[in-house]
Amino acid sequence: MSTTIQPVFYTVQERPGFLDGLKNDVKRQAGKDHDILLECPVIYIHVWQSAEDAADNKWSIYIGESINLMERTREHYRKAAEPLTWQHRMITDKDEKGNPVVPVMYVFGHKHFSMSMTRDIENRLISYCLANPHANPQNGRGNPQRDYYGMEDTDDIFHMIWSRLRRENGELFPAESRITKSAIYKASPNHRLTPEQEEAKEKIKDRVADAVIHDKTGQLIFVEGEAGTGKTVLTSSTFYELLDSDAVRGRNLKCHLLVNHDEQLSVYKNMAARLGYKDDVVLNPTTFLNSHSVEDKATGRKMPDPQKKADVVFVDEAHLLWTQPKQSYSKKYSGRQLDDIMDRARVTVIMFDENQILRKEQFDDLKFMEKKRLLAKSQGPDPANPDPAQVRDNYILLKDQMRMNCGAGTMRWIDSLTQKLKVDRLKLDGKNRDEKGYEVVIFDDPASLHAAVKEKAKRAGSELSRLTATYDWKYKNREWAPPKQKYWRVKIGDWQLPWNEQHYWLDIYPGLNRREIRKKEALNWAEQEYSIDEVGSTFTIQGFDLAYAGVILGPSVRYDPDTDRIWFDEEKRAWDHMKGNRKLSDGTIVNVTDTISRHEMRVLLTRGTGGLYLYACDKELRKALKNAVEG
Questions:
Q1: 301-342 pLDDT per residue, tens
Q2: Are 259 and 223 in contact (CB under 8 A)?
Q3: N or C end of the chain: which has fewer CB within 10 A?
Q4: Which H, E and C letters describe 123-135, residue by residue?
Q5: Of 542, 531, 538, 462, which Cα lies nearest the Cα of 497?
Q6: Nearest-CA neighbor of 526 among 184, 128, 134?
Q7: What end-to-end distance do the CA atoms of the chain give, in Å?
Q8: How far is the CA of 290 from the CAs of 283, 301, 304, 319, 435, in angstroms?
Q9: What's the pTM?
């Protein structure tokens, strides 16, 4: 069941003395529904814009819930006498003309509100504001709620509240889809977790507590899951909950979150700043290692600094760590970043997905990470319990797919394409949708694919629809393209588009000032307006979601009708690091083309939350896909 009952809404400008007439004003505005605002649980929001906010096109905002609006409002104004509070800032901030700001308060009540529901809606409003570049949130973390009575009405009531707020201030409260599809929203610690994620979080906290209480070191918690299983959400929720816990604060534990991916690092740093944490809470691995090391004067090598040992270190996207020794790195460190991080932390928590290994230099990772997987399984409070149900080790496997809102048959179809290399039949309705409404369309040419993606990007709810492709066209990072073509590009017949970020660096960046550069670089590639006319790669889109994923399977992805199998043409691959032979550390020589190509295809085909649009350069593959989907 859901509800169509509208919330009761009240708004007031918080001018001096407004508190004296607040109760009567509520009665006047709300009429016969005033009791819902004055005697029941409510959501309230304070909004103001200081001169500093206005310079950045922002508004300061505080979101709260209460069962007594009058007393809570008086309490906030009493608190305004304390200099370091948000309430003090609200009444002392000046606007652009130097006058005191005039805050606005919005209040919402509803017949179905309970304390749990108002806390749940408060939490979601805080999450939205943390992810909104026009908001300067004064709250910290929210308070995610688990199951409660009436929960089935919460989404409908929230959408009504947000819709009303949009009418009041469309910039501060933009279309929901612009927030929910953003990378920073995904990194919010305020999301309600699934039962599987909740179990994983409690297990991580339990293992961290066990290590701290028993003074263990060298502990590795290994969290494994494919793309879309919620590793980023789990990381953010668990990490910030540990930071805020009494156990961490009481023991003054040192915690860090690391990621070796520039765009994801920017997202995490942005979230940490908005939550009020110091800049060094989120770091890239090299910065962390440099700041937690001392130099051995005799050898010049960097050794763990015992005075700076971290207590807990989370590593997201652990497949991006340097695990194959690099000459420049090995001169100072052991050569494997994960080992070096573990040497400098009591507990290391890593998020790993084997299918994200996309360079042949990473191939040693498979054996190296298997050793780490076994290490985690040998650690913990009770890893050797003979009863499998009672084993308490440090290994966690996430299985539930949450990114793609598709039916089980569509997921099996993608599994078959990327794992078995087989083009199975896919049952869709007359509008190319599966039983959950997930859309799959095979296109005859890249221009039609691009046009369809652009059309989706114009619509509310699917703005983050973008085009991606396998790495079958040349692109050299931080190098200019040949003069005759200006951009590194994806070219198919007469159709062409630049590879990712070419518009930014060549056409946009030269004309920006520092503030504009910071704003641009706070967003990931898919969130930039110019990216709708570019093509992203696995490395651009890795770790991020799209609404509709337009995917070009380049000329290296071939299909053999005789064997009914996809195969990969090594000669058509454009980057040497994704093809050919690789000599492993044990001397074994393996060809990496097939495995990396499978991984790449899987990354691209699992980006879209609402749909997958496909074009295959290979004529036979295109024919097989169309027959499978439309047959």
A1: 899 999 999 999 999 999 888 765 565 676 788 768 999 999
A2: no
A3: N
A4: HHHHHHHHCCCCE
A5: 531
A6: 184
A7: 37
A8: 11, 11, 9, 20, 52
A9: 0.82
